[in-house]
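Hi there,

I know you've been waiting on this one. I reran it after we fixed the sequence typo, so this is the corrected version. Both the input and the resulting structure follow.
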Amino acid sequence: MSYLSKFYGITFPAFALYSVPFDYKIGTDTIQIQKKEFHDWHIIDRFDKNKTVLERYLSVKSDEINFDATCLNLTHVINKPVKWLIDSKAKIYDVSKKQKFEAKNLPIIKVRKNAVWVPSVSYPFELPVKLIDSKELLNQHLTIVKIDKVWVIYKVTSFKTNVTEINL
């Protein structure tokens, strides 16, 4: 599992769909998608180097096409049913095919604010603030997945599970 994953290179935030569009076109100044065969084409990005990705998205946003999710990090992508996304550099990713990743379920051994540590990983993981209860977290386990040589949070559990790999 030393090759690069389907997630390699995503620049966040990324806008995601829960199904792969039927087709897409990348023009000199726009990206368009056709969600289903025989449906209309919709502009999802109009390139403008003077605008952020959010400003560009809002300038072409319509009621006809909406993204299913906005992913702020890789944990968001792997915990939602994302099949296709466009990142903040307008790069398109089809993440619909399953791929095997190394995984571990480890006890949380240290908590400081919204950061948690597990054995055998030298860096902390950040949890959403709403999950933070230091006393309770020390009784929890973290399932982590190794994606492109970096461990990423998959989920927090109340019990130890025996896991060595996960299909995402």
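Quick highlight: The two ends are 13 Å apart (CA to CA).

Best,
R. S.
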